[in-house]
Amino acid sequence: MDRATAELKIAGLSDAESLNRIGMLIDAAWDGKSPHFTDQAFALLDEVEGRALSPDLAALAQYFRANAWANRELMRATSNVWSWEQPECQEQILSLRRAVRNDGFQQLPKLRQCQILTNLANQLDKIGRFIEAVEIYDRALSLNPRFGMAHGNRGVAFSHYARSLYDGGHAGYMLVTAHEALTSALATDALYESPHYQEAQRAFMEETKTIEKRVDVNALREEIAAAKQYGLGESAEERRYRTWCLKNRLFINPLNDLGALHIAACDILTLPTLVTPVGHGLMPAVIGFFNQMKQEFVSARYLYYEGVHAAKPHFSDRDVLLYNTLDYPVYSLAAEKIRLASRAAYSIFDKISFFLNDHLTLGHQLNQVSFRSVWYEPKGKPPRPLLARFATYPNWPLRGLFWVSKDFFEEEFRQVTEPDAESLNEIRNHLEHKYLQLHQEMVGITADPQALRYSIYRHDFEARTLRLLKLARAAVIHLSLSVWSEERGRKKNNGPKRAVSMPLDVWRDEWRQ
Questions:
Q1: 117 close to 150: Cβ distance less than 8 angstroms
Q2: What is the mean pLDDT of the chain?
Q3: What does the pLDDT look like over 300-310, one tens digit per residue?
Q4: Pair 14, 50: CB distance under 8 Å
Q5: How far are the Cα atoms of 94, 128, 271 from residue 122, in angstroms, in the given order?
Q6: What's the distance, CA 52 to chain centroid?
Q7: Does residue 67 register a pLDDT over 60?
Q8: How far apart are CA 462 and CA 252, in angstroms?
């Protein structure tokens, strides 16, 4: 198939048939490992996307574009699984997210939706963003509970997630869930789109055997079944709040990624055991720093909960003279709680960058640290190179944290994996420094990032803030697990050394002020 033939075949065809032909071309390029056919597919996608596609076909075009990037990844001359910078993977995530966020995504057949979601989760899991990957696998399985690739890859993700945990009990829970997912993927009624997935099924079988060699799955399952039931609080309001947190997977607790389990209804994750040289002070500052980030997160989480569940105006809203600007504005304590939650959640990411700069001794000047830039050389013209130590650094949770940073836009770092990254940056800028106006959904609004005011519907702002809270929660967990991986690596590289143990007590609830 040459370029002229491919163009001739889509000329005059309907949008749907044109995309069908392009999809076939991409599949042929994959089977033949053909850069030429892949280049043709990109050119034809550019041509088709120049048309006024219907929303469902626009989403499908993004899916095919991601597949074309997968072809280029396959055909890359050199590939190291630990490479942190993976441009083809970055483009796949961006295209698949655009497909999922498109208004036409839900118009696609459910099987196609499952394929898109599973591919997105696969890419996120591959680069270390396993927390978000698991939730997307679950979304795919909610559409089709028999979808084999989602079950199998979800099981692999949980298996790898378990290996990153420093808590053996949590790891056991996660391995049982991984085994159940892999068993579902290998069941006779599991749905696979074609026989070409036999290689994946063999990989799922090998992962199942690996888990069974590591733990007694049946014994663990019985232990979990016999475990005591955990309450959700003393009052009805506390139980409603904790149930909401579980449902939205907002506890700083890896078990919450298994679902709305009552045992996960607490923010139990902390930093693992640290080894510090004598002379660096009695207490490493990063322990208190992590405490503070956790407290800021859980407070932001509750402020958001109160803001979105407020049934009526607060008494502090009474007798506050405000003018009617005729654009259905939103002014209330509840709305301000959501704003405060957004600001607090966003601030956690830069705090993480200061934590990493200190704990990993990256050497950045304190006035040049940000979550987006901390991974890169401090000097040089854009694009700045990645710090050499991170090029193929074997710390999976830390690499995931690096890829979380790619969801954020800065002028010097414009290549992102989040379609809304630039607008999120503008919202944060207006929220902190200018004028972010929330509106009821009764008026048409336009958002001009260059203007003094940035307008957004309250419902949209709530959704963005919830997404930001979920991302902040994932980042805090990644930070803890990356420190654990780092500590294990240091112990292995430095060999056994004499150390004095210093156990820490917990700061009790009754001591809080």
A1: yes
A2: 92
A3: 999 999 999 99
A4: no
A5: 13, 10, 28
A6: 31
A7: yes
A8: 21
For helices 285-309 and 333-359, the axis angle rounded to 10 degrees is 160
> Which DSSP symbol is given to 220?
H
Residue 3: predicted pLDDT? 46
CB 145, CB 168: distance < 8 Å: no
318, with CB counted inside 10 A (0-12, 13-18, 19+), is exposed
Q: How far apart are CA 229 and CA 78, in angstroms?
A: 51
How is residue 88 written in tokens? 């083809």
Q: Which of 85, 112, 116 minimizes the C-alpha distance to 98? A: 116
Nearest by Cα to 245 from 259, 235, 225, 229: 259
Q: What is the pLDDT of residues 303-355, one digit of tens each?
A: 999 999 999 999 999 999 999 998 999 999 999 999 999 999 999 999 999 99
What is the rounded distance in angstroms from the CA atom of residue 408 to the CA atom of residue 375? 13
Angle of helix 458-494 relative to helix 396-405, nearest 10 degrees?
Answer: 150
Please determine, for residue 5, whether its predicted confidence score (pLDDT) is greater than 50.
Answer: no
Q: 281: pLDDT confidence band, cut at 50, 70 and 90?
A: low
430: left (phi over 0), alpha (psi -120 to 50) or beta: alpha
> Widest CA span of the chain, in angstroms?
77
Q: What's the pLDDT band for 503 if we cut at 50, 70, 90?
A: confident
- Residues 88 and 65: beta-carbon distance below 8 Å: no
Q: Both tokens of residue 331?
A: 């002014």
pLDDT at 264: 94
If one counts every other C-beta atom within 10 angstroms of the C-beta of residue 278, the result is 7
Residue 42 has a CB neighbour count (10 Å cut-off) of: 17
Strand partners of residue 456 = 438
Quick one: what percent of the chain has pLDDT higher than 90? 78
Residue pair 458/136 in contact (Cβ under 8 Å)? The answer is no
* Angstrom distances, CA of residue 41 to CA of 8, 9, 26, 423, 426: 13, 12, 6, 30, 34
Tell me the pTM. 0.94
Q: For residue 315, what is the DSSP state?
A: G
Write the DSSP symbol of residue 379. Answer: S
8 A C-beta contact, residue 371 and residue 349: yes
CA–CA dist 15, 18 (Å, integer): 5
| CB-based burial, 343-373: b 16+ in 10 Å, e otherwise | bbbbbbbebbbbbbbbbbebebeeeebbbbb
Residue 394 DSSP SS3: coil
